[in-house]
Amino acid sequence: MKILLAVDGSSYTKKMLAYVAAHDEWLGSRHDYTVLHCVTPVPHRAAAFAGAAIVQSYYEDEAETVLRPVREFFAAQGIAATFRHRIGLPGPEIADTAEQGRYDLVMLGSHGHGALVGMILGSAATKVVALCSTPLLLIR
């Protein structure tokens, strides 16, 4: 199975990895894993002021900070995974990656706020649910 794990470095990412580790059906070399982190874009004016090199360095540092512990998790399990980061809003980027990559499943952690909070504040998980036709496994 081709699985996309969307991570943000939060405690919800840790809960998702713990869930994966605790369930043999989700963890193993029989699956093809891609780990994705979406870095929110720097506003255009701030990026123009800072310069392209600084902004690119920020994106890479931010992605590495989030992806490093997940990379260590997979290494400790002895399982290969592909690690990617994209610049953009998480909901649309995760959904687009899932569709373009023809993944069988998207896994992501969710804080589990109620419907009203989700409508008002929005969340990456809510947006992925709305935009993605790939099956999702949300882990609270």
Q: How many structural domains are formed by the residues?
A: 1
Oligomer: single chain
What series of H and E elements makes up the topology? Answer: EHEHHEHEHHE
Rounded Rg? 15 Å
Q: For the residues shown, what is the average pLDDT?
A: 89
The largest β sheet comes out as: 5 strands, parallel
Low-confidence stretches: none
Order of adjacent strands in the largest pleated sheet: 3-2-1-4-5
CATH architecture: 3-Layer(aba) Sandwich
- Look at the structure and name the CATH superfamily: HUPs
What percent of residues adopt helix (DSSP H or I)? 40-55%
Strand content: 15-25%
Overall shape: globular
Mind explaining what this structure looks like?
Helices cover 51% and strands 21% of the residues. It has a 5-stranded parallel sheet, sandwiched between helices. It has one domain: HUPs (Rossmann fold, 3-Layer(aba) Sandwich). The chain has helices at 11-22, 44-50, 52-77, 90-100, 115-121, 124-131; strands at 2-7, 32-39, 81-87, 105-109, 136-139. It contains 6 helices and 5 strands, in the order βαβααβαβααβ. The two termini are 22 Å apart. The chain is an alpha/beta fold and 140 residues long.
